[in-house]
Amino acid sequence: MGIELNRRRFLSVTASVAGLTAMGGLSACGGGAEQKTGANSDALKSALPNYVPSSAIKPDIPSVAGGPDVLTDPGFLAYPSNPVTTVSGIPGKGGKYTTVTPLWGTVPTADNSFYQAMNKALGVTLDMKPADGNNYATIIPTMTAAKKLPDWIQLPSWWNANFNVGELAGSQLADLTPYLSGDKIKKYPNLAAIPTGAWQSGAWGDKIYGIPSFSSGFVFTGAVSFRRDVLEAKGITADQVKSADDLMKLGKELTDAKAGVWAFDDLWTYMFPSWGVPQKWKVDNGKLVHKYEMPQLLDALEWHYNAATAGLLHPDALAGNNADGNVRFYSGKTLIVGGGAGGWNASDHQSGTAANPDYRRAYFDFFTADGKGEPLIEIGSSSRIISYLNSNLRPEQIEELLAVADYLAAPYGSAEYTLINFGVEGVHHTMVDGIPTATEEGKKNVQPQTYPFLASPPAVISNPGTEIVTNDYTAWQAANVKHLKKPVFWNMNISLPRSMATADAGQAVEDAIKDCYHGKKKVSEVKEAINTWKSSGGGDKLIQWTDENVLQKFGTGQ
Question: Is the pLDDT of residue 492 over 90?
Fold first, then answer.
């Protein structure tokens, strides 16, 4: 959608930075100040804001519930015409504040026409200071060390360890619990429409500190997608793949190396859950188990090793060249690939059809490796984009900025959302076939990683102009939402001792796993790496500490 940044596109863009740490729910913090956790305690439950869904704008495709806190994203087949206004009056009272957010792109000029329009609409002067996202992890600790944080700052949760957010909460970051807990949030209807789980993502020490952006009840690492147009032309449909064996047989059928076609690109990250392997933790008979300890992990690796050594993966994938993965897929050199949650959108469809007019992506439904039982797919954190207010702000200033956040969280397609994401019509965007389309002025100044990084509404699925994508993706979510479950330590912020950060990363094991699914190391060599990790790499200590200090004290968070 032009320059708009929806949650899925953002996750796709930043996947290389964030990795998969969100699924584990642990962050490493150093010593010094008191460490706080955002755990699943009774005190936190009473502090969380009550959820009041918005009815301001009706989606074309409503959400489908899959269980507690699990919900598909609503679908919009077109950008809402005649956008409604959800905030009466001007939220601010003339205050002046500084903000810092990460930006992966060109920094707009200060006091540009878009910033001026936003300040007028918000009734405050926000001094927007986007910082280089590539260096954000080193920029912010300098500010916190000097105790010179801005009034409003974005701290992506995958960098909680770098920023020591567990220490900052309550010392440099403001406690929002007195303003937002329970029914108090009803003062801010758009913030109240953010699901409760997303607020827990910004909780520390049984209190609310963070304001979530891009929240969703359908957060998943990714899935295995395929060229639907190519497979259907061969008489192959998705429902024919119900197990890992089915997929292996299909891979052998589709691979024709002489013709330059391989069935698979990298699948590991999105396939291993089929064997019942969690992203990090499992509880078995009350005992905490790390995924490295599970024999199912080795079973999953055996399948991937066999696929690699059988010549079913594209040679560039085996060489670790993931940068050109989409090019291989669009050109039909690979037909089945693993993909992150941000990969199924209008941009993908446009790139694919440019290479082949018949291009159509689809995901396989989740399945178990043996084709029996129910797949277990872990949902990720409800939000990973969390902003915080400075603890030096006075109560009336906090209330003013929360009113501004309520404006920024206006629902998709509203008048406020249109201004925040596309700027002023006729200046920063024009409507082309019902779609807000950026002008040259808009391309320069309306950055999607500024205001929406301070607060934004829950995610939606919308690809105006490529409705086929929205229909396909919402249908797939609806068919698979029943398989999504909360992982151990879901939405829990845990301050892990820094001494255990290396063991938590498990880099030596992850490197061995990567070499194995590329056919370069045998499964037995991965097992040796795991044994080393457990005995001398700190793995056993990590498991014991997490069991005693998290599981036994706070439960699973499920």
Answer: no
Cα-based distances in Å from 190 to 115, 208, 211, 387, 487:
22, 17, 12, 16, 28
pLDDT over 60 at 162, yes or no: yes
Residue 221 near residue 269, CB atoms below 8 Å: yes
pLDDT at 424 over 60: yes
Dist CA 416 CA 56 (whole Å): 12
Amino acid at site 479:
A
Note whether 307 and 249 are within 8 A (CB): no
Is residue 27 over pLDDT 80?
Answer: no
Average pLDDT over residues 10-15: 38
Left, alpha or beta for 429 (phi > 0: left; psi -120 to 50: alpha)? beta
What are residue 282's DSSP bridge partners? 289
SS3 125: strand
Contact call for residues 483 and 276 (beta carbons, < 8 A): no
Continuous segment of H or E residues that includes residue 67: strand 65-67
Long-range contacts at 291-300 (CB < 8 A, ≥ 24 apart): 292/506, 292/509, 292/530, 292/533, 292/534, 292/539, 293/530, 293/534, 293/543, 297/272, 298/523, 298/526, 298/527, 299/275, 299/369, 300/268, 300/271, 300/272, 300/274, 300/275, 300/369
Find out whether 52 and 458 touch, Cβ atoms under 8 Å: no
Residues 6+ apart with CB under 8 A from 490: 25, 197, 379, 381, 556, 557, 558
Confidence category of residue 343, pLDDT binned at 50, 70, 90:
confident
For 448-483, how does the pLDDT look when each residue is reduced to its tens digit (9 = 90+)? 889 999 999 999 999 988 999 999 999 999 999 999
List the domains of the chain with CATH numbers: 67-82+93-218+382-466 (3.40.190.10), 223-378+496-554 (3.40.190.10)
Measuring CA to CA, which residue among 415, 45, 362, 8 is closest to residue 216? 8
- pLDDT tens across 425-441, in order? 999 999 999 999 999 99
Q: At what angle do helices 523-535 and 295-309 cross, to 10 degrees?
A: 140
Tally Cβ neighbours within 10 Å of residue 544. 11
282, 224, 295: which is closest to 490 by C-alpha? 282
Task: Identify the sign of the CA torsion 78, 84, 86, 90.
Answer: positive
Number of Cβ within 10 Å of residue 239's Cβ equals: 8
- Maximum alpha-carbon separation in the chain: 70
Residue 128 phi, psi (nearest 5) = -75, 125
Question: What's the CA gap between 47 and 405, in Å, rounded?
Answer: 19
Q: How far apart are CA 339 and CA 100, in angstroms?
A: 31
Three-state SS for 203? strand
